[in-house]
């Protein structure tokens, strides 16, 4: 960004908590041009768990609502038609939470009341919906260039629904929100499950009520005059919604995605190294420590000298062993924590791992179909285990 451009609009916009998009609107209003620079210039840390993710989304959404009040791109002068459409689509996109909430609430409402929002032939509606939804998915797949994952996109719509919805409500209030920074780095002292949002728990409960009412209608226990012959389709829709909400809640509460106790993100590097001059393999590394594999156990001492053979140069740091274990392969794995200070060597290591395109250690990417099978399989196993316990009785440990 040119300093002259920033000075021309009075500096960075500080009236809202999303100063980046707000400042850019003012630059465009003043006639300055922006271009897309297709190169990674910096790397940073994303939200580490569901709580941080929702906090971040709430802040961004709240800032978007502030921009709509302070500098609405539809009404302020100086923007082109394309810029108005682009900014408006971005800022109003936070209202997708209202759509998501509507999709979740509608099926149980229909099943409980018998009323439907659309009076149309079932086949005509199914064709119209199928074509529209199919075109949306095709567009997302093509624009995603292979990165679009349909199931996970819906799951994360549900994960951020509560925070986005609460953020949009600030559009109708005059209270100035506080700027809450998203905690960065893996610094949790106690790694545990977090509570699923009230919105998700409430919609799942509503789905169970809707399902119970419809099943009661089928069994003749209660009578509901449905306005159309769509009840079975709505019941199926409710089942799909409940399954997706369950997956989203499992994702939020999963220990796998909980905050880490480590003080820095680890990168899986698999590079040669050494411990006190003996050959070793570096499995992962962070700015705070490293995981080293050796063929023979290390001689115990207070500190060890770790050497790393990086792509452009090598570096060495003193470190202490925090934990160790014997791998199934027979290797000895040691978790090291670097000694305080040593900033020049840590700087060399940090630049190497952040620029080196290394994957974050412990992160695996699974196809959406595999995720769905895993979630359904886990639920099935729970019911099987419960049924087995009821049939055979609990296992009683034998003393000695």
Descriptive report:
Strand 2 (278-285) and strand 3 form a beta hairpin. Residues 394-400 have low confidence and may be disordered. Helix content is 48%, strand content 13%. By secondary structure, it is α+β, with helices and mostly antiparallel strands. The chain has a 6-stranded antiparallel beta barrel with strand order 1-2-3-6-5-4. It has 12 helices and 7 strands.
Name a few traits of the molecule.
single chain; 400 residues; alpha+beta; Thrombin, subunit H; 4 domains; 6-stranded antiparallel beta barrel; 12 helices; 7 strands; 48% helix; disordered C terminus
Topology:
Elements lengths: L2 H6 L10 H11 L20 H21 L10 H12 L3 H18 L8 H23 L5 H10 L1 H9 L28 H21 L12 H23 L13 E9 L2 E8 L3 E6 L9 E6 L4 E13 L5 E7 L4 H13 L3 E2 L7 H25 L8
Antiparallel strand pairs: 1-2, 1-4, 1-7, 2-3, 3-6, 4-5, 5-6
Order of strands, widest sheet = 1-2-3-6-5-4
- The proportion of residues forming helix, as a percent range, comes to 40-55%
Q: SSE order in H/E notation?
A: HHHHHHHHHHEEEEEEHEH
Give the CA-CA distance, first to last residue: 73 Å
Count the domains.
4
How large is the share of residues in beta strands?
A: 5-15%
**Rg, Cα atoms, Å:** 27 Å
Based on CA inertia axes, which overall geometry fits? globular
Number of strands: 7
**Roughly what is the average pLDDT, rounded to an integer?**
82
Given as residue ranges, the uncertain stretches (5+ residues, pLDDT < 50) are: 394-400
What structural class do you assign from the helix and strand content? alpha+beta
For the biggest sheet, the summary is: 6 strands, antiparallel, barrel
Q: What is the helix tally?
A: 12
């Amino acid at each position: 960004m040119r300093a002259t451009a920033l000075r021309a609009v009075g500096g960075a916009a500080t009236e809202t908590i999303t100063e980046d998009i707000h400042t850019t609107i003012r630059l465009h209003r003043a006639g300055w041009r922006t271009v897309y620079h297709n190169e990674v210039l910096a790397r940073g840390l994303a939200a580490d768990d569901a709580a941080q993710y929702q906090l971040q989304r709430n802040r961004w959404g709240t800032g978007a609502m502030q921009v709509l009040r302070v500098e609405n791109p539809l009404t302020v002068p100086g923007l082109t038609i394309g810029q108005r459409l682009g900014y408006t689509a971005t800022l109003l996109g936070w209202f997708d939470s209202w759509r998501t909430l509507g999709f979740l609430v509608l099926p149980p409402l229909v099943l409980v009341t018998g009323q439907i929002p659309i009076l149309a032939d079932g086949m005509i509606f199914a064709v119209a919906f199928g074509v529209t939804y199919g075109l949306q998915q095709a567009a997302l797949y093509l624009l995603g260039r292979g990165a679009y994952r349909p199931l996970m996109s819906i799951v994360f719509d549900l994960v951020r629904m509560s925070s986005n919805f609460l953020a949009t409500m600030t559009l109708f209030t005059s209270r100035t929100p506080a700027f809450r920074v998203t905690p960065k780095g893996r610094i949790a002292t106690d790694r545990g499950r977090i509570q699923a949002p009230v919105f998700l728990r409430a919609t799942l409960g509503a789905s169970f009520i809707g399902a119970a009412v419809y099943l009661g209608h089928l069994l003749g226990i209660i009578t509901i005059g449905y306005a159309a012959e769509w009840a079975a389709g709505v019941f199926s829709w409710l089942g799909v919604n409940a399954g997706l909400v369950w997956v989203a809640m499992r994702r939020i509460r999963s220990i796998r995605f909980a905050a880490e106790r480590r003080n820095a993100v680890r990168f899986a590097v698999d590079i040669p190294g050494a411990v006190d001059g003996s050959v070793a393999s570096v499995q992962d590394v962070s700015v705070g420590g490293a995981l080293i594999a050796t063929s023979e156990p290390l001689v115990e001492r207070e500190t060890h000298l770790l050497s790393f053979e990086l792509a452009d140069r090598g570096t060495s740091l003193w470190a202490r062993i925090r934990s160790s274990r014997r791998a199934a392969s027979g290797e000895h794995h040691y978790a090291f924590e670097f000694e305080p200070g040593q900033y020049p060597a840590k700087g060399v290591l940090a630049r190497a791992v952040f620029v080196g395109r290394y994957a974050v250690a412990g992160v695996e990417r699974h196809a959406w179909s595999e995720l769905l099978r895993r979630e359904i399989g886990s639920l099935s196993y729970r019911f099987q285990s419960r049924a087995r316990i009821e049939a055979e009785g609990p296992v009683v440990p034998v003393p000695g």
